[in-house]
């Protein structure tokens, strides 16, 4: 596909792209979990959250875990892709940390005990690691 193109991806960039596939797979998995919870807890569309007045809503925890993933991806995915252009192995490693952390975060939050989400807070290492690699590349290319 890129044979006659000027686009040249660095060696090991395939690992970065596999992380991107992982982001897609997690997004789909989390979406399915929200759809199942919507049926289980009888939260009809277009309600985004269950209107519970007391206690913790398990549905709301699942929905919020999914939304928080999407909120993070908006800056994680570009950082992963750009960092991977000069540092593909490091970016992919940080991407894997992000994916594992987000999965742990989701399941902790979805348990119905919002504090358990913090077990997966190490996903931030993946975000900040790729951000640092982007800054490093940007500074290198200023001159």
Automatic annotation (TrEMBL):
Signal peptide: none
One Pfam family here: MAPEG
Origin species: Cyanidioschyzon merolae (strain NIES-3377 / 10D) (Unicellular red alga)
Protein's name according to its UniProt entry: Similar to microsomal glutathione S-transferase
Entry keyword set: Membrane, Transmembrane, Transmembrane helix
UniProt main location, coarse: membrane
Subcellular location: Membrane
Membrane association type: Multi-pass membrane protein
Example of a GO MF term: glutathione transferase activity
């Amino acid at each position: 596909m890129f044979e006659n193109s000027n686009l040249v991806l660095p060696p090991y960039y395939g690992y970065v792209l596999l992380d991107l596939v992982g982001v897609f797979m997690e997004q789909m998995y989390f979406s399915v979990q929200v759809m199942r919870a919507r049926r289980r807890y009888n939260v009809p569309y277009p309600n985004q959250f269950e209107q519970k007045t007391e206690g913790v809503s398990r549905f709301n925890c699942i929905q919020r875990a999914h939304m928080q993933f999407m909120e993070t991806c908006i800056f994680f995915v570009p950082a992963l892709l750009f960092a991977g252009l000069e540092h593909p192995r490091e970016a992919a490693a940080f991407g894997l940390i992000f994916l594992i952390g987000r999965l742990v975060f989701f399941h902790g939050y979805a348990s119905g005990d919002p504090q358990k989400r913090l077990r997966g807070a190490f996903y931030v290492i993946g975000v900040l690691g790729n951000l640092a690699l982007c800054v490093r590349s940007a500074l290198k290319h200023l001159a």
